[in-house]
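Dear colleagues,

As part of the handover before I leave the project, I'm documenting each prediction I ran so the next person doesn't have to rerun anything. This entry is a single chain, and its sequence is reproduced below.
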Amino acid sequence: MKIEPEVKVLLDKFKEKDHMLCFRETMNYKSFGIRLNKNLRKIGNSIGIENLTTYFLRHTWATIAASLDIPKETIAAALGHGGNTVTDIYINFDQKKIIDEANRKVMDFLSITKQKYISISEFTSVH
């Protein structure tokens, strides 16, 4: 996945702290997820977002992407879902490029939204 400039700034900000980028190579999937969500909650609390988790972020990204008319198949691929149908065998497309383009659209939307001081609460409510 392409790391957008806005994300790189955040990754650099938190990489030296006891936040989400302080992981050991020996961590298993479950302990990685637990630590990631714990540290995302810390980061969320520091910026005024309660219960920031991978589920929250994935749900929010998918909801915004859908509102921007990004195809459901692209959203599914970006979330690691699907891709195992018979039709997929016959379709040769650059999934990485399509997902990178979808990420850029979501990032641009968030940037414009932030600039206009529009609340994104309608996109972040998790049911």
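Residues 65 and 106 are 6 Å apart (CA to CA). The first helix runs from residue 5 to 14.

All the best with the project,
I.
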